[in-house]
Amino acid sequence: MLDYTALSVVGCQWGDEGKGKITDxxxxxxxxxxxxxxxxxxxxxxxxxxxxxxxxxxxxGILYQGKTCIIGNGMVLDAPIxxxxxxxxxxxxxxAENLFISDRAxxxxxxxxxxxxxxxxxxxxxxxxxxxxxxxxAYQDKIARRGIRAGELRDLGRxxxxxxxxxxxxxxxxxxxxxxxxxxxQEIEEEYIPVACRLLPYITDTAxxxxxxxxxxxxxxxxxxxxxxxxxxxxxxxxxxSSGTLAGNICSGAGIPPGKVGTILGVGKAYSTxxxxxxxxxxxxxxxxxxIRERGREFGTTTGRPRRIGWLDGVALRxxxxxxxxxxLALTLFDVLSGVGKLQIATAYRGxxxxxxxxxxxxxxxxxxxTPVYREFTGWSExxxxxxxxxxLPQAALxxxxxxxxxxxxxxxxxxxxxxxxxxxxxx
Length: 428
Ligand code: GDP
Ligand code: IMO
Ligand code: MG
Prior knowledge:
2 domains, binds guanosine-5'-diphosphate, binds 6-O-phosphoryl inosine monophosphate
C-alpha cells in the first residue's frame, strides 16, 4: 500500500491507460477525488465485481459512498451528458450527494458540439478524429474570453444575454464560413438552459472547498483524463486534445498550489493504443494487433471506435514520466500480453538521416519519417490474471517489467492484471 496525502494519477500514453480502474483502486483510501481537465471526451471504466461503470465527467470516487467528488474549474462540462451520467448511476443505486462542480468550470454549449463537427468535416483527410463532444471549441472560447462558466447559471437573465451575444458570432461563422444553418436562441432557451439549471445545486467554489479539506488533512486523489501524448503542448500536436494533461496542469485545473499535488503516479498500459488520427510510431496491424484488441477489449469507451494498437513506445513513455515527474508507474492490462508471443518495446527511433532519436521530437514530419528501434522480449504464455503478487509472475514477465522500467526511467510500483479491483497488486 502507498502512503499518501495527495496523489495525482496521470495517463502516460494516448489515453485509455486504465486511469479509471487505478483511481478506483486507490480511492478506497481517499476522502476526495478531483477531475481537473478534459470533459466528456474522457471515458473511464471501472469494474467492481461483475458490474461495469463508464464515467465521462464524474470522478471515479463517485462509486464509493461518502467520498467528496469534485469537477474542477479546468474541466469543460456538457450538462445533459453529465445529468444522464448521474441518472444512470442513480438507477444503479448510486447517489451523488457529495458532488461539487466548480463555478469556474466552462460549459459546453450546443454550438460547441456543432462547431466540433463542422471543423472536423472541413479538415477533410487531415481530421483529428475528435470525440465530437465540443471539447476543442469550448476550450477555444475559454481562452478567447467568451466562454460561459457554470457559475453563470445562477443569473438566468444575464446568462441568456451572454449566450445570445456569443451565438450571434457563432452563427455568422457557421452560416458564412461553413454554410451551416446555425442554431437558434430558442433551441438553446428551450432545450439546453432548463436542463443545465439542474446542475445548480452542485455548483460552488471548489478550490475553496478543496483548500478546507486539505487543511483538515483529507486524502485527495487528482484523477487525470487523456494522456501525456494528447497534451496540448507535449503531445503529437495538432493531433491532441485541447487541454493540458500533464501533472503541471493540476494546480490551475483544480485550484491548488504546486506543493499540494503530492505523489505522482503515472499509468501506462503494457502496450500502446490510440483512438483517432495522428502519429503512432509503434503501431502494428495484422493478427497480433487483432489478438491484443480483442483480449484487451480495445474499443473506445466514449465513441466505441476500435483503438489502434502498437507495441509499448518507450520513447513516449520516457517523455511522459519525465514531464510528469512520475514517482510510481502503474503498469496496466499486463494480462493481455499472455500468449501474444515475442514482445517488443521501442527504446528509440531511427531518424530519417539514420541518427538515433532518444527523445520524442516536436516536429511530426520527423516522426513520420522515423522508425522505432525495438528491444525484443521472449514473452510468456501463462495466464497471469489471477496473480496476487510479483511472486506469481513468470520470469519472462518480470524481465518485461524490468525492460519497461529501464526504458521509462520509472519504477513499476503497481500492476494491473485484469479490469477488476482485486486484479491489482503493489510492487513497492
Ligand atoms: P481510462 O480512460 O484510462 O480510464 O481507460 P479506459 O477505461 O478507457 O480503458 C481501459 C480499459 O481496460 C477498460 O475497459 C478497463 O476495464 C480495462 N482494464 C483496465 N485495467 C485492465 C487490466 O489490467 N487488464 C484488462 N484486461 N483490462 C483492464
Ligand atoms: P480518456 O480519459 C483516448 C482523443 C480523441 C482525438 C483527440 C482529440 O478516456 O483516456 P477531443 O475530442 O479531445 O478534441 O479529441 O483526443 N481523446 C482520447 N483518446 N482517451 C481519451 O480519454 C480521449 N480523449 C480525447 O480520440 O484523437
Ligand atoms: Mg478512456
